[in-house]
Specification:
heterodimer; A: alpha/beta; three-stranded parallel beta sheet; 2 helices; 4 strands; about 20% helix; globular; B: about 160 residues; alpha/beta; four-stranded mixed beta sheet; about 40% helix
Chain lengths: ~70, ~160
């Protein structure tokens, strides 16, 4: 079950090496995103597009807000 | 959207998945770093002057005034014990009643903006209202700095960050 992550925890997680995925459309990602994030839009989130991610390391996903 | 993505990633075999549910909106509203094409355009948080003197609600104005003068500023932001902005002491308030507390002398609830506020429309609003400065706070109401209209105008004129 995925864990919910808040503002108090995310920066420590990233410093600890967590991977970061923005699932918004690419245009929104290109405009502005969190440092170090990769873009995999939700509609294309599959085994192929996540092939370069490490399934053994923590991964954080985000979109714009509570959507 | 991100909860669905998180469950999808678990289905794809990722063992430790986190949903940063407050998302990009909250991150930017904290004034934290950003990347992307729009990062070349300065926002309110990036232009705001840091190091503004602060005091607590119960501090005496006389003591606050000394602190403000020491750093060569003319304003002090009043916060509660949690660091949340409660008011502002401008030059006049700092000199009129030295014996009262900051809470008694402060301007209550000054207008604030978030650090990710785009500079150009904010400057337009400040000009229309005749505002010289505006307080910049993060998503939780903590002080990040004070944006001076002159700084915003100069930054936009140069088209670069300060």
């Amino acid at each position: 079950m995925p864990h919910e992550l808040g503002l108090d925890e995310i920066r420590d997680m990233l410093e600890g090496g967590a991977q970061l995925i923005e699932v918004l459309p690419s245009q929104e990602y290109e405009e502005e995103h969190l440092p170090g994030a990769v873009n995999i839009p939700l509609k294309s989130l599959d085994a192929e597009t996540t092939r370069k991610m490490d399934p053994g390391r923590p991964v954080i996903v985000y979109c714009w807000d509570y959507q | 959207m991100s909860p669905r993505a998180a469950w999808r990633l678990e289905r794809l075999g990722f063992r430790e998945v986190y949903d940063f549910s407050v998302g990009k909106a909250a991150w930017l509203a904290m004034g934290w770093p950003r990347e992307g094409t729009s990062a070349a355009t300065p926002n309110a948080g990036e232009v705001a002057r840091k190091g503004t003197p602060t005091c607590l609600l119960e501090d005496r104005v006389d003591d606050v005034r000394k602190k403000v003068l020491e750093v060569g500023r003319d304003v002090c932001i009043v916060s509660n014990s949690e660091g949340i902005v409660q008011g502002r002491l401008k030059a006049a308030a700092l000199s009129e009643k030295p014996e009262v507390t900051a809470e008694e002398a402060m301007e209550l609830g000054p207008t604030t903006v978030r650090p990710n506020e785009p500079l150009a429309p904010l400057l337009d609003r400040m000009k229309k209202r005749g505002t010289r400065t505006i307080v910049v706070t993060d998503l939780r109401g903590k002080l990040l700095g004070i944006l001076y209209r002159d700084d915003a105008e100069q930054t936009l004129a140069r088209g670069t960050r300060l």
